[in-house]
Amino acid sequence: MVYTARWGIVATGWISERFFIDLLVDPSTRGVTDVVHTPVAVASRSVAKAEKFIADFGNGVQGVKAYGSYAELFADPNVDIVYVGTPHSSHYEVSLQALKAGKHVLCEKAFTINAAQARHLADYAKSHKLFLMEAVWTRFFPLSLEFQKLLHEEKIIGNIRRVTSDLAHKFLPDVESRLYNPSLGGGALLDVGVYAMTWIQMICYNHPENLQSRPSVINSTILKSPLTGVDESTVITMVWDKPHIISIATCSIAVNSPEDCLVRVQGDLGEIIVPISTANPTEFIVKIYATEDGKEDEVKALKFPIPGPTGLFWEADAVARDVRDGKIVDDIYPAEESVFVMEVFDEVRRQNDFVYPAEIEFVEDE
Fold it and tell me: Where are the alpha helices (H) located in 204-334, listed in sequence order?
């Protein structure tokens, strides 16, 4: 029997547009036959904005309600799962409101502003038997699953020794931009740093020998924007004792990433390179080193085209299955891992004296 996931979308910015469009893609085009997605409501700060969003991106879909407040959507009994696509600064507050209304939640990255907020959301969802996940869509790409299988199960490059991961997009400094606005959780760390960390998590945090242990060393450097003080460029170095790996995650909103190598995993026998995007990659390259017995380097590119507009539908499929099965935590990306990331980011900010305004760092009293 096919399960229908009934979605309510909160906020009408760019990422919500992409998610809405992907929900409407026929799942059979990506080989999915057990779940389908039905957007039933969209909430914005006005009914007119929500109606325009549905008209512009709904491809003629009928029956989607437009709400002028988030609270109205949370009260809609036809909404099972809420997708939170608001700015970073309100992820915690909006997700908590949705959970309190009894809704399952998929919240965009970055999950929250700090680890205390992330822990509160995770604990609340668990205690109320509600599903909660951060929308780190990259983790659900078939490419990412095969990448981890080759590294950790087949050990195709032997023992991993060093990992570098980067995501950087150049944006013009602008006090009006959310990326440069501290009150909206601006800066590289919460915007593109999540993606750089995602690959470190897949490779190191989830390494079979690490067993989700924290790194023994976290060192970091932040270059702050002279305009607003947000982190413009950030470097995070971590040491993982059990698998004996050093990792370096870099992110920036001041420059662009190189076009030929965003992730490099170096092992005893070879290396794997993700050449293009750490957010929505479509290929990675495996290089097996030459051997002393005369065998030459072996290089192979593995390609994973995205069968649709963006690729956000894979995470939506996972959420639908989890809710269908009565699960409150996803196996691939549990909320506990989101808490870990926010703990790392808290430490990075502590080391570099980088704080957000108190009004977005708050944690609600029980």
Answer: 313-324
Average pLDDT over residues 157-184: 96
191 and 253 Cβ atoms separated by less than 8 Å:
yes
Residue 211 reports pLDDT greater than 90 = no
SS3 62: coil
Contact 50, 68 (CB under 8 A): yes
Pair 108, 91: CB distance under 8 Å: yes
What whole-number distance in Å separates Cα of residue 117 and Cα of residue 107?
A: 13
Domains (range + CATH), the chain: 3-138+311-333 (3.40.50.720), 142-303 (3.30.360.10)
Judge if pTM exceeds 0.85: yes
DSSP 42: E
CA-to-CA distance for 32 and 200, rounded, in angstroms?
Answer: 29
Give the three-state DSSP class for 273: strand
Which structure tokens are listed for 163?
Answer: 């990992």
Quote the CA–CA distance of 245 and 208 in Å, as a whole number.
Answer: 13
pLDDT at position 366: 62
Distance of alpha carbon 251 from alpha carbon 194, whole angstroms: 9
What is the β-pairing status of strands 283-288 and 270-274?
A: antiparallel
For residue 187, the SS3 value is: coil
Proportion of the chain above pLDDT 90, given as a percent: 95
3-state helix/strand/coil string of 107-165: EECCCCCCHHHHHHHHHHHHHCCCCEEEECHHHHCHHHHHHHHHHHHCCCCCCEEEEEE
Q: Name every residue whose Cβ is closer than 8 Å to that of residue 329 and which is 6 or more positions away in sequence.
A: 126, 131, 132, 133, 322, 335, 336
CA-to-CA distance for 79 and 10, rounded, in angstroms? 11
Within 8 A by CB and 6+ apart from 308, the residues are 22, 25, 29, 30
